[in-house]
Specification:
It contains nine helices and eleven strands. With 280 residues, the chain is of the alpha/beta class.
């Protein structure tokens, strides 16, 4: 069955040129946006109890815009003046660009990975003499400390903010053809707000391996996993699915057609996992 409506578990884009709007227009879709999680800051007073001294570190590892905002918020709360010599290791160019909201951008102190944390590790390994601070959420990707430990990096993990489930009690149901998730917290929020939710024919999309794992661990079927080689963005992955969905449905219908009279029926081959699309 054709996908008609999609729920994206993030805030609505503020940019009119967002690819989500183009996708909706191109495929005649209704796309709703609703954050399934919210960020709560760790108070400075609580952070002090961890006995972590920010200025004992010479470099900051920033994995998201939230990490950027809450690192500088904490510095302000604790009245810590960040020295100009502090170095910033950003997981992507977009995060590095966002850092300019708080500092004067200088190439000699801002280092950038291509996209993933694994890419950033290639840069971090070249600066192993630094003492790294990793501002994070209480729900951190497991690969981050694993990769840092493996490389023998001197670092401190510090929880600067928490990820909690949004109150979705105003939503009567989750009757969408597709649900799009970007973090394990979004899956937890779905289970908390809608404990009796049954996926049935709904398509589930996840961005990133940790989110994909959370979908499967929760007992749901994962239909779209982004990024993929042919579609590095979530909107690209969704479009790839929509394009291949029609072909897949037609193929399934042809395979399911009854065999002509007088001939033994031929068992249709099982469809490949990547061929799933739409509603059955």
């Amino acid at each position: 069955m054709k996908i008609k409506n999609i729920l994206v578990t993030q805030p609505a884009p503020t940019d009119e040129k967002s690819p989500y709007f183009s996708l909706a227009k191109k495929y005649n879709l209704r796309i709703d946006f609703r954050p399934f999680i919210k960020i709560e800051p760790v108070p400075g007073q609580e952070f002090r109890q961890e006995r972590i001294t920010i200025l004992d570190h010479t470099a900051i590892v920033l994995t998201s815009r939230n990490a950027v905002d809450h690192f500088f918020r904490m510095c302000k709360e604790l009245r810590v003046t960040v020295p100009e010599t502090m170095k910033y290791f950003c997981v992507s160019e977009s995060v590095a660009y966002y850092v300019q909201k708080y500092i004067i951008y200088r190439k000699r102190k801002v280092f950038i990975g291509k996209q993933s944390f694994g890419d950033l590790m290639d840069v971090i390994k070249k600066h192993k003499e630094e003492r790294f601070l990793v501002p994070s959420s209480d729900i951190q990707k497991q690969e981050i400390p694993q990769l840092l430990d493996k490389a023998g990096v001197n670092y401190t993990n510090a929880v600067f903010y928490r990820t909690v489930a949004s109150d979705l009690s105003d939503l009567k149901d989750i009757r969408y053809d597709m649900l799009v998730f970007f973090s394990p917290g979004g899956i937890e929020s779905l289970r908390k707000n809608f404990p009796e939710y049954v996926q049935a024919e709904a398509v589930m999309a996840a961005f990133g391996p940790t989110t994909a794992k959370a979908v499967r661990d929760a007992g749901f079927r994962l239909d779209i996993e982004a990024p993929m080689p042919e579609a590095p963005s979530m909107t690209g992955a969704i479009e790839h699915y929509l394009k291949n969905g029609a072909k897949s449905d037609a193929k399934k219908a042809k395979q399911a057609a009854p065999a002509p009279k007088g001939k033994a029926p031929v068992k249709a081959p099982a469809p490949k996992p990547a061929a799933k699309a739409g509603k059955k």
